[in-house]
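2024-03-11 09:14:02 INFO receiving multi-entity request
2024-03-11 09:14:02 INFO entity count = three
2024-03-11 09:14:03 INFO echoing inputs for audit
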Amino acid sequence: MLTHRITLTIVLVFAGFAPAVELLPANKPIETVIDLAIQARLQADGVQPAPQADDATLIRRLTLDLVGRIPTLVETDDYVGSSDPNKRAKLVDRLMASPGFVRFQAEQLDVMLNSTVAGDDRRQGSVRNYLRTALADGKTWDQIFRDLMLPNEDDPKTKSAVNFLKARARDTDRLTNDVSVAFFGVNVSCAQCHDHPLVADWKQDHFYGMKSFLDRTYEAGNFLAERGAGLVKFKPTRGPERSAQMMFLTGTIVDSPTVRELTKDEQKREKELIEKAKQDKKAPPAPPFSARAQLVELALKPKESQFFARSIVNRLWYRLLGYGLVMPLDQMHSENPASHPALLDWLARDFRDHGYNLRQTIRGIVLSQTYSRSSIDPREIPPAASYFAVGRLKPLTPMQLAASLRIATRDPAGFAGMKPDERERQIESLVSGAAGFAAYFEEPGDDFQIGVAEALFFSNSDRIAQEFLNNHGGTLLGRLKTVTDPREAVTLLVRTVYGRLPNADEMKGLTDYLARRTDRTPEAYKQILWALLTASEFRFTY
Amino acid sequence: MIRCGSRLHRFSHTDSSFVRIVVAAPNPEKLKLVKDFGYPMPVFDVAPVPQSTRCFFGAADFQVSEVDLAATKWEPRKLYAHGSYVTTVTLAGSALISGGYDGQLIWWDTAKNQMIRSVEAHQKWIRKAVTSPDGRYVASVADDMVCRVWDAVSGKPVHELKGHAPQTPQHFGSMLYAVTYSADGKYLATGDKVGHIVIWDATTGKSVTTLEAPVMYTWDPKARLHSIGGIRSLAFSPDGKRLAVGGMGKVGNIDHLEGKARVELFDWQSGQTIAQQEHDGQKGLVNRLAFAPDGSWLAAAGGGTQGFFYFLNSDAKKILKDEKAPMHVHEFSLSPSGEEFVLVGHNRIAQYKLG
Amino acid sequence: MRAKSFCGSVDHAISRRGFLGATVAAGASAFADMTGLDQLGSSALASQMKKNQKRVILLWLAGGASQLETFDPKPGVQTGGPFRAIPTSVPGVHISELMPQMAKRMHKTCIIRGLNTKIGDHLNGAQLMLRGRRNEAGLKYPDIGAVVAREMARLESQVPDHVTFYTQTEGRYYALGDAGFFGARFAPMELTTENRPGNIRRRDGITALDHQQRADLRVLLSQQFAKGRSSSTLGSHNEAYERVRGIMASETLFDVTQEPQKVRDRYGPTQFAEQTLIARRLVEAGVPFVRIGRAWWDCHGQNFETHQEMVPELDHVMATLIDDLHERGLQDDVMVVTLSEFGRTPRINASLGRDHFASAWSMSMTGGGIKGGAVWGKTDPLGNTVSDQEVNAGTLFATLYAALGINPHKNYYVGSRPVPLVDEGIEEIDDLIA
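2024-03-11 09:21:47 INFO inference complete, emitting structure
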């Protein structure tokens, strides 16, 4: 098998990826490189960044981002009260070592991989179970990519990875685009019908080139199968029909005699294989030459892997900072440069050099000063998001929201009395029970808008009232039965739900409210709790 | 009926206006397909000419046609057309009466090959017309939910039988699919979409009794908000005491004819149910039922995506013979001896023989 | 330089159809509408537009109603089925005999018979026919309800913007309302179990005063949080809670018993009839978009029986709705659309059914800026292909939007990415617009 490049394409693609500035040395810590790069641009443009967030805000942000829930009051108190200079790194390491990290990262990667199918058919395509096992086993992103693209249905550990391809196998146009978007940050769908009008990188050859790797994938019975040969043809906007080659996004072509149409016999054989797969309830045998395997190998080659590495780094950055180095996430090409090109390239290089280790990159980002800036910016016109000068508000994901509601409404003294291991187990059991509730909420995307349905749900549903506003044993409202001093009650409520003390305005407003309801104090506590849970502070990572 | 140990039985009606000697019906085990013919459209009904190999049939091409099943070449001849699907054909002497979704009953002189008359018989689709055993009357049913009895010769209306609700309980238009005479011609039975059956005194046109077979009707209020099913076939036992009712059991996905083929057997005078038989292996509507001339078996045919043709014992509790028909069967004719069947249905006509 | 990030450009931003599209989206800064003319936004113009605020009732015939048994009969041919065609109030135009009432009103209605939308499975067909195009990887498009809601809703509106009824379970999942990249602000209020929206009524456990005063507490807390912070998502969160009281007050709109018995009798007793009457109440009160999902037309078996059952109901309800809107003087403001995910095969299968078919099928539009009596598109004698005036989903949606006064060529912005309302190169059919 030979690979070669189309000269025209290589020029355009690498024009886009050529580093604008020299990269910083590889051995510097990730967080240092991030802060240097971000600071350099702030300074160059004379933009003043926001100060660092306070400790209570930071532990809330880290806990939500790393394990998908708010911290318990005891965790917050311990963190805020600690004078250990290394407390932040220790917190990060503790959270990343907890079972919640695997759970939440698997959820987030699943959402990322299936973002398109999610809107169309939530019943298909979930690889969450696979991702949990893979992350728990310490699998790196390239290994996950291999498992998803070349799933082995006989291995119980990777079996459910097949869902990613299976959910898309009946529509290989979609498969082509979804693979390009999910793993390479490139949306080539425009190039399906015509060369992209604005982006020179994207020709029809790119779409059909990528499709040539994936078009041989099909569903046989309930199993995934691949043909040993195949030819993708397309009609260019001008000129006669063309045959596509197996061409990666970089322009590299895989030459193979299998790029040809199937013979009549082979077509017949395929039908027989499908029937046999149905009868035997077993996947058809893999072909001697797998185009999909070629794509995986090629995409991970040192000279080709920039798409693969940059895309996931940009996505991790987006998830943690609330805005990508390249936006939109699926438009990573030469004419849509990164806000900090050298930083993106450095992070991608570092990621690749460290064996595509997701944990390492995540840890580096959350330890940076850039990550821990305050989200408060009193300026009338805040600097553009791409400066990363101010912490960004991120709406909670459905799972973050559901899990956090469960934690915020428990009696904080319960958590405080537990040993750390026991607390961890208790929290995980609370969180895993929140999955059904999470289905009420929408997964946030760019420029997410919260609808009135959510507000009505919180305002009037039985579910909210019964699940979160009851005063049974072990709940926050249950604990408040013994509290008679209004200031003490307000302090307990605000600290438990928000992890901070009430400010003067809040103290006044809430104690006044209680004072007007001395005849029904428990009811008044309940309504204050409702207001705390529905106010914006609870709904966002800030 | 007297059993006397030989294959010869004497069968007499209590009202002995006529007496027939019948040979014991042949064993369904010996069922075999003799011939089958393709037709470009669904065929809905067939009327064989007695003592001949010819038959008339009506089809979805709006045509009434004639064909000689014994001819060396399969050559149907179109006789005349209705304004819509021809759903029923029946002979009364040399007159052929056909009916269709155009609401018309057409009398055709088979000897002279010309139309006798066309009658606007019903306001809605005609589903079925049958000739009384003595050949004097024709009874037709239609989605106007009325059964009309006509003088087979003059074409004049004789009775108008009204006993079926025009709307289903869910406020949609109902349908009246099935009608049959008892062998002695004294009774008529009609069956509708929601499973309501009325037995009529054929002479007076008065309702004698009613029966219900509600399982035949599936209304899906939750998933799909429409209905499927209905009573599609009726047959009196030769002694007139029992009434067999054909259709389909409850359906899960009502987009498809996937309920089990279902037959209910009533002792209609007492209103007692003798059998409720669902065929575990066959899905779809039982479009036609017929008892053996001696009552020893009950033949059922119909279909969904595929067709079926099976025989139950006289109690309708046991399957004696089970055949996969070559098409979804809409109707069949049965020779007086109980030996020859002509099945018509989806784009096919099939000739079967017992023995 | 603005990053080029999608195959749209500011060149598309020049409105081609005049002063169009007042928008509620002003409240959501992320959706600042860049369409040149929309930026003029003079108050006189705005009030004029509000006066002519158009609304849509979409009768969604879920599962795929048959064109041959409704708007494109082919009596007497092999594929035609048993039903006759009857003349209509438009000379030369015939529709199925199952629709005698609509036949008398055909001069008010426009039929498209030339739909070729290619996608013949429920999920993807429904997605396509509710959006006018297919979702892309990484970009979920708003459906027609969300677009109309966003373009037509009034900022100060006390009623929902986008309501969908889909009571049956079959196919509901395929046709979920979806605001796509507009976000939940324009997502539908979905009614699935009963005709009254869920969570619209105050629970028994809380007094009206407490309900109100805890909302005030929520505002107090949210205001503290909003100091020094701004984002469109944050804005939408508070706006959603601000709308709660208004929406709760609109509960009676969903109560069909508020209508005189005479009116209820006129529509009829079925669920579809009742929901359509509620839709009329809603649009009259200013709700921009209501969709009634009437499931389930997927007649793989017994196509004719089922259409005989269901089409007369459709005919009656549709005709009653059109008459009612006329009597209320709303005919030019409210568009009534009937649409499915696809039609049904001309070929009749062994179960006397018709299967999925997207190559040559029909839909209808009445009022709200659509030319009455127009018929667009022609199918071959057997109904297998479109022989003239073929229409794809994009063209249909461009036409619908244009008739409603929404510029189909306007751009929305997802971040900095311009996304045109209909795909590049798609043009509306001017002949169908009044």
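2024-03-11 09:21:48 INFO post-check: Chain B touches chain C through 40 residues (CB under 8 Å).
2024-03-11 09:21:48 INFO post-check: Residues 222 and 282 of chain B are 26 Å apart (CA to CA).
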